[in-house]
What does this fold into?
Amino acid sequence: MPTLESTGVAINNDLGVNLPDFSSEEYKDAYSRINAIVIEGEKEAHGNYLAIGTLIPDKAEELKKLAVMELKHMKGFTACGRNLGVKADMPFAEKFFLPLHGNFQKAFKEQNLTTCFLIQAILIEAFAISAYHVYIRVADPFARKITENVVKDEYLHLNYGQEWLKANLSTCKEDLMKANKENLPLIKSMLDQVADDAESLDMDKEELMEEFMIAYQDSLMEIGLDTREIARMALAALV
Amino acid sequence: MFGLIGHSTSFKDARQKAMDLGYDHIAEGDLDVWCSAPPQLVEHVQVVSAIGKTIEGAYIDSCFVPEMLSRFKTARRKVLNAMELAQKKGISITALGGFTSIIFENFNLLQHRQVRNTTLSWERFTTGNTHTAWVICRQLEINAPKLGIDLKKAKVAVIGATGDIGSAVCRWMSQRTGVSELLLVARQHQPLKDLQQDLQGGRILSLEEALPEADAVVWVASLPKNLEIDKSNLRKPCLMIDGGYPKNLDMKFSGSGIHVLKGGIVEFFTDIGWNMMAIAEMEIPQRQMFACFAEAMLLEFENCHTNFSWGRNNITLEKMDFIGEASLKHGFSVLGLQKDLQAAFA
It folds into this structure.
């Protein structure tokens, strides 16, 4: 399996940031979990979009397209791990997503589209976008290229969820607030769980949180909530 | 639309402000929470100038507080994220207030043009330094005579003479005000020599040498932390213009013939319906503001959508004339010494 040669010195990318040593044991160990989370996240996103499609049959085709993109991302990130000679720790990732996955499944069974969209298309996508933005700055050149392309797609997905929630805001606002209250803390605790591993990849927890807050706030703004509602919803995650 | 990027003067104030605005959750958070908080567009405002021109504006709090200055990455993110927000909101010209422009300059943020999917357009931002420099000069010209200081015979010390604002003040003082002598003080010697040559005059001195000689002192550098000055060595009267940020000269010097004036502050002719200046601890928050903020408003009034003040040492006298004229036309006046103080002197 090809791996990057150890350079022994920090590489400088064109953002003027010192890059970590991608071949160190510490980096690889942390990467085995972070990479697994990303792969699992994309895999579950694929399943979630297909599931949502069964609840809105006239949108099923569109949602299938989104789902297919997620599979492509999954393959891309799998290649990133291979490139560094890292075996993704999939059991860890499955456990990591379990609470959020459980909430999605529950909402799906109740045919609660608002919660399904909030969890998959808003919370998870905003979390992914923000993490990818932070990662791009410190990623190895191969992963950076892959991630840059993925981010562009993820914005489409975020946008899809936003549009649906925006169109249905008058009837789904209460559900949205409730779903936020139940699921946003999960995102916070997920971030806490991987903070040390992310740090090993030179990704600051503080920055990850801020990026997530920016993406999430923007998204809620697009959906049509006002500043105070957003403050109540989003900032609650910080504390 | 014009924009202002500001921040609270301390963490304690920031929390209080957040509480007042109904952002309870973040108000209760510790400094780490604030470090992760995204910038907030907290207020929209409409302003009608003295000649009847109406403009719209927005105030963005970067969620930066001075306690974050030691956290380089955090401070950098706060500034860039606030600038990105301003651009995303379609604001044509935004002033970087308080520490924002200082961080931008000192941390060399010019090389960080890409913020996520946004490429920052520098022409949408201004440091506001041209207006600040003009205001400081006018404050000196208007208030020195009130204390009996004849500027034509006076020695004026400029502390931080080689900075963006400092060098502009020096040029104006030597060419327009015609002060008797400029005393040039700054940390680095070579830029001082270059400035002296550019001005074709002025005397280079250390702070300790300059202060006892000066009839007026313009401070545009931050005050050294452990600076001990024997007030009895200073000339009386002495006018000190506190043009630095934050403004902390008052407690150090004020009293017994030494008059400290908050520099770089303007007052609008009528109340503006905003709450934002209360954050900046203005005495009359409905009317007073930093001149750098007012510059963004002036550029909007004048439909002059360029990064009017940008980079170092680009402030010309012509630019100061332009912004000064606009300032007066649209209803701004420079902050003067308190009336009771002047009366006491008279």
